[in-house]
Amino acid sequence: MTTAVAAFAPNGRLAERTVETRVRFQRLSDTDVEDYTLRREWNGKAGGYAIQGRAGRFVVAIQGSYSAVVGLPLYETVSLLEGWVPAPQRHGETILVNVGIGEVRIATIDERGLSQLAIERLGGAQVTGVGAIYLGRVTSVVPGMEAAFVDIGTERSGFLSAWDARPHDWVDEDGQRRAPPIADLVHEGQAVIVQATKEPLADKGARLSTRVSIPGRYLVFVPDAEGVFISRRIEDEAERTRLTDVVSKIAADRISPPVSSFERPQMGRRRKIWRPTSRGWRNFGQKWRKRAKHTEPPAALYSDLGPVERFLRDHIGAKTATVLIDDAAACTAAQNFVTNNLPDFEGAVEQYQDQDEIFDAHASPSVWVPVGPEGGVAVGRSW
Questions:
Q1: Taking Cα atoms as reference points, which of 107, 118, 102 lies closest to residue 357?
Q2: What is the distance between the terminal CA atoms of the chain, rounded to a whole angstrom?
Q3: Residue 361 contacts by C-beta under 8 Å, 6 or more apart in sequence?
Q4: Residue 258 C-beta-side C-alpha neighbours within 13 Å
Q5: Gap between the Cα atoms of 268 and 48, Å rounded
Q6: β-pairing, 93-100 with 320-325?
Q7: What phi, psi does 144 have (nearest 5°)?
Q8: E strand intervals along 21-132
Q9: How many CB atoms lie within 10 A of CB 15?
Q10: If you write DSSP's letter for every residue of 232-281 in order, what string do you get?
């Protein structure tokens, strides 16, 4: 079924959208057809309206209708109007990004002043840091430590404990989630895909895990496990339950594969966002797995987002008015990331071009302390 909607803008411009919907029915028995015909509910109905009411129980799947109401292009109408309505002006917090030599500083400024500060030192061209995925080779297995050491191409071999090497669904013969012996999981010389979960410290290498996972804004992509994995940043149990139900329902209709990536859970738009996002995760997983098959370890397969994109993914929200970045390349990368992943904030990312240093121009030397009576801490130089 094809449904079209057209609208004239105030300037006389014509815009139109077309949606193609496929409806799959279960096999109908003669009794089903006779019962439905005798009730004459179909009388006076046509197109999408003919499968509503009692006929809806014969429908197995609806593909292509984001609102799940065939013949009523709600989403398409909204998308037409969105292009003509000016974007609302945001008033709230500002995110400041200072890109220096070997370091990125990111601060969130609200009406009280500095509310959050993150500083990350850059690791150069080498893929490093928490979240990076490697194709490594086991250099030694130490049963006494229940751990193995894995060469991942960095200065020091990574540390892989038996607990971090166990499969996602592992339980022992007693039904307990105790880790099996490390010798049962890996052997010396074996190539393994691992992910850094803790950065190197002093003379110790990175802590590793074979349980690969990649966080999104709301959910977590876990390629080797089934189920819906909600981000730990969402602490409200009601919201966690709602997201689980939404994603489970979408996965159950088999229109999209059940992968754990879902960036915008608003009703009415979820199916449109889910399809390209799920395809993106599936393609991503296939890409680095294919690379692992044709690469000699040790090799880096994937690195997490850069510090700016990662901060925006985790912290940009309804209160964010502006994101100011004082580096042209970082600003362009952030704008592209927001356009592709956080379209509600498209236009909020701007390049800072004033002469004054970005923190000096926008950040106050006083920090509000949310404890006890109203007050704060003033930071200044001591001469």
A1: 107
A2: 77
A3: 354
A4: 17
A5: 18
A6: parallel
A7: -65, -30
A8: 22-25, 59-63, 93-100, 103-110, 113-121
A9: 14
A10: TT---HHHHHHHHHHHHHHHHTTSS---S--S---TTTHHHHHHHHHHHH
- Token couple for 340: 């592709």
Conformational region of residue 64, where left means phi above 0, alpha means psi within -120 to 50, and beta covers everything else: left
Strands 103-110 and 207-209, how do they pair? unpaired
Rounded Cα distance, 131 and 304, in Å: 5
Measure Cα distances from 194 to 115, 158, 317 in Å: 35, 9, 32
Structure tokens at 311: 């901060």
Q: What is the CA radius of gyration of the chain?
A: 27
Residue in 279, 137, 262 with CA at minimum distance from that of residue 208: 137
- Separation between Cα atoms, residue 338 and residue 47, nearest integer Å: 39
Structure confidence by residue, pLDDT tens digits, 180-238: 899 999 999 999 999 999 988 878 899 999 988 888 777 788 877 777 788 877 888 88
On whether the pTM is more than 0.85, the answer is no
User: Using CA atoms, how far apart are residues 179 and 360, in angstroms rounded to an integer?
Assistant: 51
Tokens encoding 81: 């109007």
Tokens 């919907």 belong to residue: 21
d(CA 99, CA 314): 19
Q: How far apart are the C-alpha atoms of 207 and 157, rounded to whole Å?
A: 9
Per-residue pLDDT tens for 333-368?
999 999 888 888 888 999 998 888 998 888 766 666
Cα-to-chain-centroid distance, residue 210 = 20
C-alpha span between 180 and 182 (Å, rounded): 6
- Residue type at position 319: K
